[in-house]
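Box 3.1. Reading complex inputs
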Amino acid sequence: MNTKLSRQQRIFNVAAGQMVEELKGRHAYLHGVNFGREEYGVFWLRSTDTTWGHGWGRLIGYDEMFKAHCGPAADEMFGSARFTGWFGHEMDGHDRRSTNWGASHVLASPVIEVADDGKTARSWYLTPGTMMNRFGRDGKHRSGGWLWERYGSDFVYHDGKWWWAHEQVCPDIAGSMDAENWARKMYDRCKASGDLGPAVSAPKNADHGPPRTDKVSRHQEWSLWQTVQHTVDPPVPYAHMDEENTYSPGYNKFDVILPQNRQYGGDVIDD
Amino acid sequence: MYKENRKLFTDDEYIVRMWEKEYIQDLVARFMYAWSNGERREALENCWVRKTHNRRDASWGENNGFYVGYDEVVRHFVAEYEDECKADLKAFQDARPEKGYTGADLGLGKTLLHDCTTPLLYIADDGQTARYLCYDVGMESTGKPDGSSESFFEVGLCFIELIKEGDDWRIWHLVYEHDFSMEAGKDYGSLPRILSPEDDAVFTRHHGTPTKASDVYNDLYGWEYIYWDMPAPYKTYEEEEGYGPRGKIGKKYYDRII
């Protein structure tokens, strides 16, 4: 714990911590219904160093991230494209994004740190979440799943507001509710693919995910043959964001790039 | 460009507001804890409004409508649950009269857990009300005399509006948008999208008969109104924007257009 902060800095940092909780909460509910526009279009930092990572790699820059979550690619990635032509009047007046999705990545066990310089903040959360909806994969049967992940998130203070800058999603385990032995399922999958040995840790997610610049996978789904992955360890007290204190190595030059991105994407960032 | 209401406060005001946010989260957690313990009457008495005029406006929303007024909230949240417990206890008594079960065993066979994950909380600029949203990843189980049980994971959105009474925060309006019940050991994904009324009864078993029936939430379409209903920074309480029976939750989009 940093004990050298002034009273003013402490107040600012506690308020910042609560703001990070707010942004994480807003994200959790909006992502839960695939409302990308209402999230990424509202409180994400418009910068070239904004990134969004998953098992399949990283989306680099605000434009790439926004397209993946708010355009036709999002319909593909989150599955609502399947709805086209499925239903008639049943969907009239309803939002197919929320109807299809239902990803309740509930948040637990937060660790939040605010930089000594007050310009960035970092958070780490776990989710013991669910993935449920009534329309399922075929439109006839329901979908009932659970998904446990861990999240590393970075935030930037800019023009008097906190903005989301980096997200690294780390899916670990998932299964169907309440129907299967998920450990046995993994064993059967490994056995069927000949993966019953510690040599099998090659990235398995490279073929999935939206169009993206960085296809290097930083986090694999759990397997029988790997240790716990320290992809997003909880943040520790830090002075300022750098390569040692980030969830997106290589994309932390906010002091340099933000003035250039003042009108990034055609929108003026102000409050 | 998106703009949101963000009032600036002095340091001392910030300190009070941050302290109160922590207090409110504790209060809701205490409510959930009492609910999980089956101590429903205490949960209401300790965490809900006490002033007469606030009790008159207190409400509990379910998917099928609102229980309006504190007494109606008690009827739904406490009395209906106690009736259920009495019926469960009677089944135990009838099956094994030699055991001599008494009223002290009310709640026998029950296991509950309700929680408040993913908090999203804003206190109004005037500091008199607050809006809170959390997600309940819960469970409820009822044991049977033959050793079987009815056991479910229960998940749902919990919208809560709080009001300040003196120096205390109190729960005033609560809307529980029940998403799903997943029966233990049953493949939820094998269920059809639309169930028969008989089969659907298990999912609506806790909704009861509200004071003011209305289609508050339909899990068929998911959280389609979450962007409009979730808490956001606000200046002061307005009934039509609140979580009470005359508020916005449960309104369709065509009723929200001004």
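In summary: The first helix of chain B runs from residue 11 to 36.
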